[in-house]
Design goal:
There is one protein chain. By secondary structure, the chain is of the alpha/beta class. It has ten helices and 14 strands. It has three domains: 14-77, Arc Repressor Mutant, subunit A (Orthogonal Bundle); 100-169 and 280-315, Periplasmic binding protein-like II (D-Maltodextrin-Binding Protein, domain 2, 3-Layer(aba) Sandwich); 174-272, Periplasmic binding protein-like II (D-Maltodextrin-Binding Protein, domain 2, 3-Layer(aba) Sandwich). Helices cover 42% and strands 20% of the residues. Helix 1 (14-26) crosses helix 2 (29-36) and helix 1 packs across helix 4 (70-95).
């Protein structure tokens, strides 16, 4: 079905289509109006005029929600990628003058955004001040092409197919932590199966489903739907709940570093939680790469190159410390399994 019911109808302007896509993204007139710098009433009037000219309703509206109709979804799917390409083309024009410009929209998880903000984003913003960098943090996986993003960031194991990926930040780990008091009262689990007898702090995914804890050892992989009376949807809150002795938590290792260093938390099941491939910036291979994205990838690679010597020094120092510890204890090095 075509959205265009009248071939002689006036086509929507670029401003109207941009506003339409903002409403689709936010599912809210108020949030879209804030992004566009206009009032919700003006935005509603603009969309109403657009619908009247097209002769089709684009949104179902209630007092509490806004959602695109089938026609609205079709228009968003078709027009979204076109406007992204238009932005990219205009940005590439700026690069001809020696200054990279344009808008760069990247969909990231909250933790990935923190990793980018550590070194990559500050370096990029300083070097390319004419680029409007828009980082959108979401816990759920989205279709970056359909949603109008230039790129996305996810863990290596969650990358969509047919995408070009640029790794950064190194491997990551999820760990199981608990407070010393909890372990003293309930014992220490030695295998994932033992979690069935423990209180666990469960994690709710953006989809509403509970996350099953993932373990791996000697090529054996397990996913465990752990028991527990407390479910949270934020890793920081899970770390705090575990530190208060409310149970075991499965969390991003970097989020628990401070509590582990202070002794408020300790790790368990370490041999079941190996490192996994870390974050990757990914983008479609079939699309012409905009100048702003090309510049962002350039910065990522330069930052990673600068980090490499420091990582090598840390690894060497860690290995030397372990070797000294084994020698002092009179132990031979253990073979890697």
């Amino acid at each position: 079905m075509s959205v265009w019911t009248d071939p002689m109808a006036e086509r929507p302007s670029l401003a109207e289509l941009t506003a339409f896509l903002a409403i689709v993204r936010h599912q809210s007139f108020r949030a879209a109006a804030d992004e566009l710098g206009m009032s919700p009433s003006s935005l509603s009037h603009l969309v109403r005029g657009m619908e009247e000219r097209l002769g089709v309703r684009l949104f179902n509206r209630t007092t509490r929600s806004v959602a695109p109709t089938d026609a609205g979804q079709q228009l968003a799917r078709n027009v979204g990628p076109i406007l992204v390409e238009l932005d990219n083309a205009l940005g590439d024009l700026g690069s001809l003058s020696g200054r990279t410009s344009g808008r760069l929209r990247i969909n990231v998880s909250e933790i990935a955004a923190g990793e980018l903000m550590r070194d990559i984003v500050p370096a990029f913003v300083e070097r390319f001040p004419d680029v409007q960098l828009d980082l959108v943090t979401e816990g759920k996986l989205v279709d970056i092409v359909a949603e109008g993003f230039d790129a996305g960031v996810r863990l290596g194991e969650a990358l969509p197919q047919d995408m070009v990926a640029v790794p950064f930040g190194g491997d990551v780990r999820f760990i199981v932590v608990a407070s010393p008091d909890y372990l003293a009262a309930h014992g220490t689990p030695r295998t994932p199966d033992a979690l069935a007898a423990h209180r666990c702090i469960r994690f709710r995914l953006p989809s509403g489903k509970r996350y099953r804890w993932e373990f791996e050892r000697q090529r054996q992989s397990l996913k465990v739907d752990v028991p527990g009376s407390l479910t949270l949807d934020h890793i920081g809150l899970m770390v705090e709940a575990a530190a208060k002795g409310l149970g075991l938590a499965y969390v991003w290792s970097t989020k628990a570093e401070a509590e582990i260093a202070s002794g408020r938390l300790v790790t368990v099941l370490d041999d079941w939680t190996p490192p996994i491939p870390g974050h990757h910036l990914y983008y479609p291979s079939s699309r012409l790469m905009p100048a702003a994205l090309r510049a962002f990838i350039e910065v990522i690679r330069e930052v990673e190159a600068q980090r490499a010597p420091a990582k090598a020094r840390v690894t060497a120092t860690s290995a030397l410390g372990k070797a000294k510890g084994r020698a002092a204890a009179g132990k031979a090095p253990a073979a890697r399994s």
